[in-house]
């Protein structure tokens, strides 16, 4: 075993052993991520098999992401409850909701369940960061967020393969049943977390000043997600016209990016939005060569850059936001950041019809390099000037 591998494993053992609550937290995450990653794949495939329509299959995925536009209100709802019970009951509620799909394949019912699924995802993005702030000192937040990213990306590599095999052999019901069971087990794991939660703060506590103070981190991370989706759109042309492989080779490129994100999560304490954007820019330029070793290395580097941007903005939200408004600020910020993904896909779909993959990757490199430069200078200065003092924020509670 290499020295750096031994160092990473030793660090993980020390961290894992020093914080029992993190064990239950990650146990719940593992179950939840597996079920969710499997369900996300099967939702589109199931709709495609029922209707034969690409548009209706895409609409199924849109139902999952659509509730993100309601994030300020869902976050406000989360701020009025203690976070641990909210997460437990939300997970428990999803089991009977998913169970409905075991008895029907009516399109309207499937879409309705997927909308509820999306609402649950936004609610978790509002409540979970606040719970972590109560569980851990601030200097451990980046590390936990990084490990969370590693786990999430790792499950994206494993769960869809298992889900695809189950769906091909038995249809949707095994995946639905596994997802429902994963929510029940995640609720049980979350209920084991020991935390002393204060009563929820009054609703009148304003959240806009804290969200505004995070403008530049949010813009930087959103740009990273936007650029990643442009890369996805250009990858089809890269594989076909540059590497001269079939479309199935996209799975290899996705695996390389996923491996980079897993490693980036293990080094989450180093996560920085500026560095993440710069790495994405370098990776985009490397892809223009259409040389297989460079493209695979670029995917790995891109995965690191993208993961670091997401980890950094999540950590900044937790560190700069008072508990009274954590739900609203976190849910809104994360929804904006991940909203860059669908927007990038839409723009990328238009660009690939008129530009070569080389031109699109140059656009990505210029965009992310410019944002990295701006974020390192004027953007960061503006963010620091706008940040409300934490002490003043705490006094508002």
Notes on the structure:
The protein is an all-alpha fold and about 400 residues long. The chain has helices at about 5-20, 20-50, 55-65, 70-80, 85-100, 105-135, 140-170, 175-190, 210-215, 215-245, 250-265, 275-285, 290-320, 325-350, 355-385, 390-395. It is globular and about 55 Å long.
The end-to-end distance, rounded to whole angstroms, is 50 Å
Our count of helices gives: 16
- What's the alpha carbon Rg, rounded to whole Å? 21 Å
Helix content: over 70%
Q: Regarding quaternary structure, how should these chains be classified?
A: single chain
The H-and-E topology, N to C, reads as HHHHHHHHHHHHHHHH
Alpha-beta classification: mainly alpha
Proportion of β residues? under 5%
General shape: globular
Q: Report the average pLDDT across residues.
A: 81
Q: Point out poorly predicted stretches.
A: 388-397
Largest sheet: none
Give the tally of β-strands.
Answer: 0
